[in-house]
Design a protein that fits this description.
By secondary structure, the protein is mainly alpha-helical. The chain has 2 domains: 44 residues, no CATH class; 48 residues. The chain is 35% helix and 4% strand. The chain contains 2 helices and 2 strands. Strands 1-2 form a two-stranded antiparallel sheet. Helix 1 crosses helix 2. The longest helix is centred in the middle third of the chain and has 19 residues. GO terms for molecular function: glycosyltransferase activity. InterPro entries: HGPRT, PRTase-like. It comes from Sciurus carolinensis. Keywords: Glycosyltransferase, Transferase.
């Protein structure tokens, strides 16, 4: 099940997805035809990810203030997420 921070206290900021969350039904989404038969459910929709990245950028600006920052992405596969956060940071400042 998916919980908000209000419903799942003491979990910090964000959304908590429990281990037994069955995911969203595929009928709720459009996805490429070549994926038909390979997918069983959608665990986290793109919109939630985009909203969370935007919120992360807002939280960063709230925590450090509006000053010059230097960002270093240290995860090889994290460049896309890092780039998305930077884009939102640029839009905020």
């Amino acid at each position: 099940m998916v919980w908000s921070t209000e419903e799942a206290p003491d979990c910090g900021r964000g959304v908590v997805i429990t281990d037994n969350w069955p995911g969203y039904d595929l009928n709720l989404f459009t996805y490429p035809q070549h994926c038909y038969g390979d997918l069983k459910y959608v665990l986290i929709p793109q919109g939630i990810i985009v909203d969370r990245i935007e919120r992360l950028a807002k939280d960063i600006m709230k925590d450090i203030g509006y000053c010059d920052i230097m960002v270093l992405c240290v995860l090889q596969g994290g460049y896309k997420c890092c780039a998305d956060v930077l884009e939102h940071l640029k839009n905020i400042s």
